[in-house]
C-alpha cells in the first residue's frame, strides 16, 4: 500500500449567572439552611477570559475544511478540490468564514458550546498524491508562520477569534510540530520533500538537511517509546527538536498564534516527540501568554500506558483522555464491556492522573469510527453524550456527532457536515448539559463516586463542596431497571431531570440522609439531578496553568473564597495575591523550592481551604538539554536513569530520576541519551544511575557538572564513572 494511503488509513490514529440559566431545582422540604441563600453571581471561571481553566467548558472539534464553506473565493482549484464533496481526500472548501458564520448565527452558542478546536491553521503542502490525498486535514505543514490560504488569511483568522470571543467561545488550534509533511529521503519529488518555510523563506528540506533539522532514522514500527519519537511517523518528515533552528522556529511560530488571541492548543502526536522538548515548549507558552494545552497520545482499546500518565502529570500539558474514550465506546457503542468496566476506568484514571479534571474527554474524533453506527439507535449516542458531559474532564464533541453523522475510518469519519439542525436530540442534550458545567461546580470540579451499578446501569455522583449532581444511565435499550437502595449526597427534596426527559429520564424524591425513593429508570434512560449550593466552605477546584516558574501568575478557581482578600500559600510560602473573588483568585507563584507543591488558601476570616496537591513549580525558565552517557553497560533488566541537584532532574531522588533513558536510535547501547527540560543558565550537578526494579546502582566518582545555556538547546556527553 502506498505510504500516503497508509497514513490516511492510520488507526493512530463575564458572564453573570443569569436567572435564566439556573436549571430547575424543586426543593419541597427546605430543611437545608444553605438553600435559602440567594445564588451568588460569579464571573471568573465562567468567562472566556480564563484561558488556563477549561473545566467549565464544552469544546467542539471542527475539521475546518469539512464544516462550512463561508467563502467560495478561497477554495482550491484543480486536483486539490472536489466541489461534489464526495472524494473525501480532497479539499471541500470549508474555512474560517464558515466557522464565523456558524458562530454568528448561534448554532454553536445555542448548543452551549464554549470552545472550538479547529484544524491546524498553518500553511500546508499543495501537492496532490495520485490517490487524491491532500492536506485538507491540516497535518502536512510547510510554514507554521503562515495561514492555510484555503482556510483564510490572518485577518480571517483574527475575525474568527474575535467573533468567537464576542460569544464567549474560546478558540483552540491544533498544532503539529512533530513533523512537516510526507517525504522520501531518496525521492525529492515525493510530495514536497517535507520542506519547511519560515514566513515564506525556505529553511529546510528532508533530503537536503546539512544541519540536522530532521530525523533520518526510517519509519517507526511503534515497537518502543523511543522508536516512536526519533523515527518517522508513517512517511512524515520528523523534526529534530534538539536542533536549535527547529526549537526556536516552533517557539516563535506558536507566539505568532498566541498573539492572535487563541485560548488553547491541541498538540498533535505528543507520544512521538521528546517530553523534555514539550515541557520546555510549555514553559515558553506559559512564560508568554498562558493557554490551556492538551496533547494527543493515542491509546487503543484497553491500553493503559504509564508513560502516558507520567506525561500528563509532568509535561505541563493535559492529554486527550483516550482511556475514557475507548472505554465509553466499548461500553455504550460496541457492547464489549459493562458498566463495571466503565466504573473501573473512572477509578483507574482518577488515580493515574494528578488532575483528572484537566484531561479532555470525547466519544469520537477524526481518527476513530464515528460513534453513531449506521442503522443503530441514536439513543446510544445520546447516552454516551449524557455520560461524557456530566463526567470529570473537559468534554470535546466532534463536529457532526450532534447530527448523528456516521462513517467508519479515515476519511469516512470526516465527511462534510450534513446539516445544522438545532432540534436533534443530541443537540438538545448538549444544550441542556453544557450550561450545567458553568453553573454547578460539581460537574466541573467534583469528585466522582459510584452509587449504584449493574452490567447495564450506572448511577454516579459528582460532588464539589456542597454542590452535587447525580446521574443515572441505563444502557440497555430494551429493559428498564428498578433502582432501590440508592443513597446520594443530595439534600432532601424533589428533583426533576435536568434533561427534561430527552433521554426518557424521571424525577426523584430524596429523603433525609440522601436516600432516594425507589424508581424505575426507563430502558435506554438517562437522567441528571442536581443541587447547586449557594454557600461553601473555601474549596479549590482547579489551579491553572498546571506548571509555573516563581513569579508567574496563576488562576485558582473554586468556591467559597469570600469576597475579601485572604491568603494563598504554595507549600508554606505566602504568595502575592493579584485579585480575589468568591470563585477565583489570582496569585503570583512565590520563590518556593521547585517540584510538586501543595497550593491552599485561607479566607480573610482565616478558614482554610482544601489542599490542591502536586502543583508543578519550575526552578526557572527552561531550555532543552540532551544528556548522553557513554560506556554505561548494564545487566539484563537494568536501565540507566539520570538525576541531579534540581527538581527538573529529580533532586537526587532515585525514584524521581529521569528515564529510563534511550539507547537504540540516536545513540546506541552502551551509550544512553535523553532530552530533558532543565533550568536555563544554571550550573547543575548530576549523575547517572542504574535501576533494576528497586535496586539502584549509582555512578561512582564526583558529580558531573554542566552549565545549561541561557537560551538555545544544549548537549552534554560524559562517560559512565564506574
Ligand atoms: C494524529 C492526528 O489526529 C491524525 O489525524 C494525524 O494524521 C496524525 N496525528 C499525524 O499528524
Ligand atoms: C546524592 C548526593 O547529593 C550526590 O552528590 C551523590 O553523588 C549522589 N547522592 C550519589 O551518592
Ligand atoms: Ca472556502
Ligand atoms: Ca518525532
Automatic annotation (TrEMBL):
InterPro entries reported for this sequence: A-amylase/branching_C, A-amylase_C, Alpha_amylase, Carb-bd-like_fold, CBM20, GH, GH13_cat_dom, Glyco_hydro_b
**Which keywords has UniProt assigned to this entry?**
Calcium, Metal-binding, Signal
**Which GO-annotated molecular functions does the record name?**
alpha-amylase activity; metal ion binding; starch binding
Domain of life where this protein originates: Bacteria
Q: Per its Swiss-Prot or TrEMBL entry, what cofactor is needed?
A: Ca(2+)
Q: Name one Pfam family in it.
A: Alpha-amylase_C
Record domain CBM20: where:
617-722
**CDD domains from the xrefs?**
AmyAc_AmyMalt_CGTase_like, IPT_CGTD
Query: Any keyword Calcium?
Result: yes
GO biological process terms on file: carbohydrate metabolic process
Q: Which residues form the signal peptide?
A: none
What's the family? Belongs to the glycosyl hydrolase 13 family.
The name this protein goes by in its record: Cyclomaltodextrin glucanotransferase
- Per the UniProt record, the source organism is Clostridium folliculivorans
Amino acid at each position: 500500500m502506498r505510504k500516503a494511503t497508509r497514513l490516511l488509513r492510520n488507526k493512530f490514529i463575564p458572564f453573570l449567572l443569569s436567572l435564566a440559566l439556573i436549571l430547575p431545582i424543586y426543593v419541597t422540604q427546605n430543611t437545608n439552611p444553605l438553600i435559602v441563600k440567594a445564588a451568588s453571581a460569579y464571573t471568573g471561571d465562567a468567562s472566556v477570559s480564563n484561558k488556563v481553566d477549561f473545566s467549565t467548558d464544552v469544546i467542539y472539534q471542527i475539521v475546518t475544511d469539512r464544516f462550512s464553506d463561508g467563502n467560495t473565493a478561497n477554495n482550491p482549484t484543480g486536483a486539490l478540490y472536489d466541489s461534489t464533496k464526495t472524494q473525501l481526500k480532497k479539499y471541500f472548501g470549508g474555512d474560517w468564514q464558515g466557522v464565523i458564520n456558524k458562530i454568528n448565527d448561534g448554532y454553536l452558542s445555542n448548543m452551549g458550546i464554549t470552545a472550538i478546536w479547529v484544524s491546524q491553521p498553518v500553511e500546508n503542502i499543495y501537492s496532490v498524491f495520485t490517490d487524491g490525498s491532500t492536506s485538507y486535514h491540516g497535518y502536512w505543514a510547510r510554514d507554521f508562520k503562515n495561514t492555510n490560504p484555503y482556510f483564510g488569511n490572518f485577518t480571517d483568522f483574527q475575525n474568527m477569534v474575535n467573533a468567537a470571543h464576542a460569544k464567549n467561545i474560546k478558540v483552540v488550534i491544533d498544532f503539529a510540530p512533530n513533523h512537516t509533511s510526507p517525504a522520501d529521503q531518496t525521492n525529492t519529488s515525493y510530495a514536497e520533500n517535507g520542506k519547511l518555510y519560515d514566513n515564506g523563506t525556505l529553511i529546510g528540506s528532508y533530503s537536503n538537511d546539512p544541519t540536522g533539522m530532521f530525523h533520518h532514522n526510517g519509519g517507526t514500527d511503534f515497537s518502543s517509546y523511543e522508536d516512536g519519537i526519533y523515527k518517522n511517523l508513517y512517511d512524515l518528515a520528523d523534526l529534530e527538536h534538539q536542533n536549535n533552528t527547529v526549537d526556536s522556529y516552533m517557539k516563535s511560530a506558536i507566539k505568532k498564534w498566541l498573539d492572535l488571541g487563541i485560548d488553547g492548543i491541541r498538540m498533535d502526536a505528543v507520544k512521538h516527540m521528546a517530553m523534555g522538548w514539550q515541557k520546555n515548549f510549555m514553559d515558553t507558552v506559559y512564560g508568554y501568554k498562558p493557554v490551556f494545552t492538551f496533547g494527543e497520545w493515542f491509546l487503543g482499546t484497553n491500553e493503559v500506558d504509564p508513560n502516558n500518565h507520567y506525561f500528563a502529570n509532568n509535561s505541563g500539558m493535559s492529554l486527550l483522555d483516550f482511556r475514557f474514550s475507548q472505554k465509553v465506546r466499548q461500553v455504550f457503542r460496541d457492547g464489549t464491556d459493562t458498566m463495571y468496566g466503565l466504573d473501573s476506568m473512572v477509578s483507574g484514571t482518577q488515580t493515574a492522573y494528578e488532575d483528572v479534571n484537566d484531561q479532555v474527554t470525547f466519544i469520537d474524533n477524526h481518527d476513530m469510527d464515528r460513534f453513531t453506527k449506521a442503522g443503530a439507535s441514536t439513543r446510544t449516542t445520546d447516552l454516551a453524550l449524557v455520560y461524557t458531559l456530566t463526567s470529570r474532564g473537559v468534554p470535546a464533541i466532534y463536529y457532526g456527532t450532534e447530527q448523528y453523522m456516521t462513517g467508519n475510518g479515515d476519511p469516512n469519519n470526516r465527511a462534510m457536515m450534513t446539516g445544522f439542525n438545532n432540534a436533534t436530540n443530541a443537540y438538545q442534550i448538549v444544550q441542556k448539559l453544557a450550561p450545567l458545567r458553568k453553573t454547578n461546580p460539581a460537574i466541573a470540579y467534583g469528585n466522582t463516586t459510584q452509587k449504584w451499578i449493574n452490567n447495564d446501569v450506572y448511577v454516579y455522583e459528582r460532588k464539589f463542596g456542597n454542590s452535587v449532581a447525580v446521574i443515572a444511565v441505563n444502557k440497555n435499550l430494551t429493559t428498564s431497571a428498578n433502582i432501590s437502595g440508592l443513597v446520594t449526597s443530595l439534600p432532601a427534596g424533589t428533583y426533576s431531570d435536568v434533561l427534561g426527559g430527552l433521554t426518557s429520564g424521571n424525577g426523584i424524591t430524596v429523603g433525609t440522609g440522601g436516600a432516594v425513593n425507589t424508581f424505575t429508570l426507563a430502558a435506554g434512560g438517562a437522567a441528571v439531578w442536581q443541587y447547586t449550593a449557594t454557600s461553601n466552605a473555601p474549596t479549590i477546584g482547579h489551579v491553572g496553568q498546571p506548571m509555573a516558574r516563581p513569579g508567574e501568575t496563576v488562576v485558582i478557581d473554586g468556591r467559597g473564597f469570600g469576597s475579601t482578600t485572604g491568603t494563598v500559600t504554595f507549600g508554606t510560602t505566602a504568595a502575592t495575591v493579584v485579585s480575589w473573588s468568591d470563585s477565583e483568585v489570582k496569585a503570583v507563584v512565590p520563590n518556593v523550592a521547585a517540584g510538586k507543591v501543595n497550593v491552599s488558601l485561607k479566607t480573610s476570616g482565616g478558614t482554610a481551604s482544601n489542599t490542591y496537591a502536586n502543583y508543578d513549580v519550575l526552578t526557572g525558565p527552561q531550555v532543552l538539554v540532551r544528556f548522553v552517557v557513554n560506556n554505561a553497560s548494564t545487566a539484563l533488566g537494568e536501565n540507566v536513569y539520570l538525576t541531579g541537584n534540581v527538581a527538573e532532574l529529580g533532586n537526587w531522588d532515585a525514584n524521581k530520576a529521569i528515564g529510563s533513558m534511550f539507547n537504540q536510535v540516536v545513540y546506541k547501547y552502551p551509550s544512553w541519551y535523553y532530552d530533558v527540560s532543565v533550568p536555563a543558565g544554571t550550573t547543575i550537578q548530576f549523575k547517572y544511575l542504574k535501576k533494576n526494579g528497586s535496586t539502584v546502582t549509582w555512578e561512582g566518582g564526583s558529580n558531573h557538572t554542566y552549565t545549561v545555556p541561557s537560551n538555545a538547546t544544549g548537549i552534554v556527553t560524559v562517560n559512565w564513572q564506574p
